[in-house]
Amino acid sequence: MNESFENKYVAEGVSLENKGAGKELIVLAEADETLQKAEIEAIEVILAGRQAEESAIGPKIHEKVSEIEGGAKTLLNSFKEKVTNIVFGQKENEGQPKLPKEIFFPEEELERVKRMGLRGRKEALGEWKEKYAKQKETLANFQEEMIGRIRQCPDMHLDNFRFIKEEANRLGFTPEQKENILSIFNAYARKHNEVASIRREHPNDSELFEALFKSAPKGKIEVVEGPMTLYFKCFNVKDYALIYSQSFSGDKEFTEHDINVANMSQGCSIPTAPIKGLEGCIIAENRFVMNKRFQSVEGFSKVYSPARNEWIDEKIANENILATSENTRIHEEQHAIKRLFFDRLLRRNTFKELLSSKTDNEREKWLANYLRYTRQSAAEPRAKDEILAFFKDGTNPTETLKYLTESKKEGGLYDYLDDDNIEWPSRLQYMLQVENYKKLYDKTRNKIYTEEYHALIENSIHNAEFLEQNGRTKEQVIALLINEPLSKWAKVVGRLVAGKRIAKEK
Q: Its domain of life (predicted)?
């Protein structure tokens, strides 16, 4: 076992333990940072062994590598448990502390059930499923309550964290679940502080826009500061398009087509940021298109009715613009916080499973799951708007497919899945340094980012064309598909076309 690794993190654990309860948030931040460092250094120990194994032959080297891996994993897990116990240590405030529930360890319990004889296994498995479902529900409810408290009291980090600690202990969460909570809350606190800091530097809305996006706004800008978001209301479509297209990154020229595509959407939440630390914190609203859609003529507005397959007059109150704007802001704000939660959990689970999986098939499954998630969040929403914009302009479907599937290396302008556009966790970057992992990544990436994605784009282009060929106008097709994810277009189109045929037969 690597002695320097072991000695270092035993000392780190003692250091954290001696910080004292008076510095809870400092301990929280240091604990999260220390855990990340420990994970990376443990990976380095493990990967060094695997790299040696790749260049050596014989059972002895395999046994030695297995011994190193086992020792590093055992020490890492022991250290993690020690740190989470320090951070989540129960403390009597007033009266008696709440008694914790019995802790349920799903993976360990499932292994125990598998080792049972046939007679009792079925009943035990049923009990395990019931406990597992209950724990999942408890975690989901806890997450919603955690988000609610963050939104209501975004600046009260210490009070919020004390509540989270107390509830995590009371609800009987495992050390691993507590570790995830620690990581998520600390990530939120960092995002919140970055947002608050940049807002203090630039209290004027237009000046904040220019400071972030390196361009003076063309029209009116309003900014709403959220718990971990900056919500930009853009009254000029060019300002909204600048954020939507992420052209502030400097690697893509801002074009008229960007404006047309941006105008397909009412709002956006972008994964990148012009300043490090604000990734996932920037939201924008297209007030230009919202005002345009709610322009009333004698108190009425044209609204498409899918049920009647026609445009109808609908009475609209002027305050609906404000109500829609506020609903959009609240929805996007909640979505940003939930995305932070889910993203952190998925990253940690992917790393854990890649490291513990025994076969390449198992590793490929977890890697594919993560790559699909990044594709669905980073590429598919923007590809959808591009397809509808090209469709509206009458671009040939073959040309649209070429534009949207050409890689950046081939000169493509719409390669949203280029590695430069995807934020990779440092843990996974370390793992990809090993040749076997790199080969597996390249194979899985090609399957998810090229084969599956290109097929999805091609099918989606044909679905829009097919709907128009079956009696809908371009405007109707756009209205029917614009709020549906690409993955559902085929099903939506199938139902609409089938429904129209049935109506004709009647």
A: Bacteria
DSSP codes, 137-190: HHHHHHHHHHHHHHHHSTT-HHHHHHHHHHHHHHTT--HHHHHHHHHHHHHHHH
Q: Is the dihedral of CA 393, 396, 401, 406 positive or negative?
A: negative
Q: Which helix (H) or strand (E) holds 61?
A: helix 59-87
Retrieve residue 432's tokens.
């990809």
Dist. CA 266–CA 291, nearest whole Å: 10
Phi, psi for 276 (deg, rounded to 5): -60, 135
Boundaries of domain holding 438: 345-505
Residues 6 or more apart whose CB falls under 8 angstroms from that of 437 comprise 354, 363, 431
Q: In this structure, is residue 90 part of a structural domain?
A: no
Domain count across the chain: 3
Using a 10 angstrom Cβ sphere, with 0-12 exposed, 13-18 middle and 19 or more buried, the burial of residue 444 is: buried
Domain-embedded: residue 250: yes
Q: Of all residues in the chain, what percent are helix, strand and coil, respectively (each to 5)?
A: 70, 5, 25
Residue 95 sits at φ, ψ, to 5 deg, of 70, -160
Work out the average pLDDT over 404-422: 80
* Statement to judge: residues 268 and 385 lie in one domain: no
What's the token pair of residue 172?
């009987």
pLDDT at 450: 93
Are 170 and 231 part of one and the same domain?
Answer: no
Which of 391, 355, 347, 410 has the alpha carbon at shortest distance from 373? 347
- 242-246, long-range: CB < 8 A, 24+ apart: 242/213, 242/215, 243/213, 243/268, 243/270, 243/282, 243/284, 244/268, 244/270, 244/284, 244/286, 246/270, 246/272
Specify whether 166 is located in the same domain as 245.
no
CB atoms < 10 A from the CB of 240, how many?
29
33 found inside a domain: no
In a domain, 385, yes or no: yes
Domain end among 287, 314, 341: 341
Contact 354, 424 (CB under 8 A): no
Judge if 496 and 352 occupy the same domain.
yes
pLDDT higher than threshold 80 for residue 354 = no
How many beta carbons lie within 10 A of that of residue 49, not counting itself?
21
Q: Which of 140-154, 205-219, 355-369 has the lowest mean pLDDT?
A: 140-154
Same domain flag for 141 and 203? no
Q: Which amino acid is at 222?
A: E
How many CB atoms neighbour CB 217 within 10 A? 20
The pLDDT value recorded for residue 155 is: 72
Tell me what the pLDDT averaged over the chain comes to: 74
The residue that leads in pLDDT, 314 or 187, is 187
DSSP 234: E
